[in-house]
């Protein structure tokens, strides 16, 4: 990898840049406990800067019992000792900013840990001032939970509290009780969490599970899902009509946005909501009262054919509000690895697609190495999803395994046995090995990121579909007379497109660039970026 070019004029980092998700537990261990930490991330900033990304999104680093690996927060304004301390965090922010990298934190507004002081007070008695900070309800008239709502991790979404004689609601684990965002004291306390971290130099937040934030106040049962089948998660037996995507969620998002705007227009809020496109668009809100970027996960689940991808892009672009900026995601810490879903050859093509579409791309650590899902032996399983619902392929451990840095013991990740096993190919699939190989997928990512910075047409310009055949997807990016053609073989069979003239700028297979005239020919599993005459 070589040093990235400087940013072009008019660069807005969250619109024109590239976000890289760091899963801190698995990025780099600095103290020999087998778990990644903030000092480890700090030690690898040069790698991220040289790769060419613009922002780091850090999965949760807050104080937590780690029942759900940080998504069960017991103190929103403290760093968990597993990851380091506030001094290390501040050093990381300062060093990242010095290298031109932004820092995005996870923000988990839907729930806390059951060990959070707020919940400890809430469950202490029915008359405690914080009782209404969580969602407590009496049993159903005939006994049992108040309704049929189910936890995302399996089982009822209600847990009985013997001491106070009521149930509390939890969309996820019983140890993750849901906050009551209809209580203004909760709203203000959680907005103060944003202010705390903005005051310490954070550039933005990825807002976790935002569509779960509000539930129907009448506690109506969720209806049966007629499309459910045995190969789906048990929680999907019911449609979540009354437990996700409630209208009041947008009032909460608007309040978050007001906090963000108070710190200037270079801060960002990114919302996590797995929703159909038409419902997702509501999370943009108005011009300044919604998320800057509601995560768009649809590229992870679309049929991998030229026409299906072209139709998805067209549908998504057509639904965007006038003030909305698109974004695309191909991998994260909750879904099967890109190279496992599509295969290693198409993972290279997918990288070119992700980094040339109009909008902000988010990369997941290790995808730039072509990492695949790692089988986890039953005795090594850590994910509560797999523990609660074993054998259904729902566990997330396979995509959270440690980053392989080199061929030294434990892949250079730690001096101790890692908290999750490494992939079997770590001795050959690692950063050091791929950095030295010009044809590696890592160097392809780096080249794509350099090209994206060098060509404003890729970062901010218009999009026009050129062709979607049985085998090829081709589209044009254009700005100020500069026209770039992106041609991708999604079928693995190769193909050809007529081109009046141009020059190949980049190929997924490392083939030499050069002039093109008459017909652009693609080898199987190849992608090309061509500057048109």
Summary?
The protein has 533 residues and is α/β, with parallel strands linked by helices.
Radius of gyration: 24 Å
The class by helix and strand makeup works out as: alpha/beta
Estimate the helix proportion, in percent: 10-25%
Strand residue content: 15-25%
Question: Which strand order does the major sheet show?
Answer: 11-10-9-5-2-1-13-12
pLDDT averaged over residues? 96
The main pleated sheet reads as: 8 strands, parallel
- The dominant shape is globular
What's the β-strand tally? 19
In DSSP terms, counting alpha (H) and pi (I) runs of 4 or more, how many helices?
15
**How far do the termini sit from each other?**
29 Å
How is this fold's topology laid out?
Layout: H1 13-16, E1 19-22, H2 38-43, H3 45-51, E2 55-58, E3 62-63, E4 75-79, H4 86-98, E5 102-107, H5 117-122, E6 136-137, E7 158-161, E8 166-169, H6 184-198, E9 204-207, H7 249-261, E10 268-271, H8 277-280, E11 293-294, H9 306-319, E12 327-329, H10 338-342, H11 344-354, E13 360-364, H12 384-388, H13 431-435, H14 441-454, H15 456-460, E14 462-468, E15 472-479, E16 482-489, E17 495-507, E18 515-522, E19 527-532
Parallel strand pairs: 1-2, 1-13, 2-5, 5-9, 9-10, 10-11, 12-13
Antiparallel strand pairs: 3-4, 6-8, 7-8, 14-15, 15-16, 16-19, 17-18, 17-19
Helix pairs in contact: 6-7
